[in-house]
UniProtKB/TrEMBL annotation:
Name of a matching Pfam family: FMN_red
Stored PANTHER family: CHROMATE REDUCTASE (PTHR30543), NAD(P)H-DEPENDENT FMN REDUCTASE LOT6 (PTHR30543:SF21)
Domain NADPH-dependent FMN reductase-like: 7-149
InterPro entries in the record: Flavoprotein-like_sf (IPR029039), FMN_Rdtase-like_dom (IPR005025), NAD(P)H-dep_reductase (IPR050712)
Species of origin: Pseudonocardia alaniniphila
Name of this chain's protein: NAD(P)H-dependent oxidoreductase
Length: 194
């Protein structure tokens, strides 16, 4: 990593047994790691094991929360890999977002979604509203896998790899632009919420 690298945290949002998220996230992280301008950290919420009950304000921070905090705080940008559950996103993603505040502020978030007919896009639209509330900026383009389980081969690679790689590149180009712009802005004028 160089001083000009973008520190990207790729978040695997599903913790369900038998989940498909690590396949999608593994492919995407591989695409991101091909770029010289990105330093990629994959945060699997199944491994993070964040408590699902938030502590009262002023209470000691649980160790699991502190361990993830440093990774989020160091990030310049985030990519959330999410399935769609009941027309929305998984509860562990909301728990992750709610445990933190400043770690998200004035940083860009992009999405890789997967699911059935909608490809997880309804989950993404719900997440946009939540990330706006924590003062994060979501990028327009997403990578979406409709009928995801039939779109990946045995090696964890998309069957339509060229199209998927092109979509990932477009999204990462937008994300890195926002990450650099917001990092420079935070350095020149620290972000302060009301």
């Amino acid at each position: 990593m160089t001083d000009t690298s973008i520190r990207l945290v790729v978040i695997i949002g599903s913790t369900r047994g038998g989940r498909f998220g690590p396949t999608v996230a593994g492919w995407f992280a591989g695409e991101a790691r091909q770029r010289a301008d990105l330093d990629v950290d994959v945060l699997d919420l199944a491994d993070a094991a964040l408590p699902d009950r938030l502590e009262p304000f002023g209470a000691p921070t649980p160790p699991e929360v502190a361990a993830v905090s440093s990774r989020l705080a160091a990030a310049d940008a985030f990519v959330v890999v999410t399935p769609e559950y009941n027309h929305s996103y998984p509860a562990p993603l909301k728990t992750l977002i709610d445990w933190y505040g400043r770690e998200w502020q004035a940083k860009p978030v992009a999405f890789v979604s997967y699911g059935g007919m909608s490809g997880g896009l309804r989950a993404v639209e719900h997440l946009r509203q939540v990330f706006a509330e924590v003062h994060a900026t979501t990028v327009r383009d997403t990578v979406s896998f409709h009928g995801a389980w039939a779109r990946f081969g045995d090696g964890g690679r998309p069957l339509e790899e060229a199209e998927c790689s092109a979509a990932a590149k477009t999204m990462l180009d937008q994300l890195t632009w926002w990450a650099l712009a917001l990092r420079e802005a935070r350095a020149a004028r620290p972000y302060v919420t009301g």
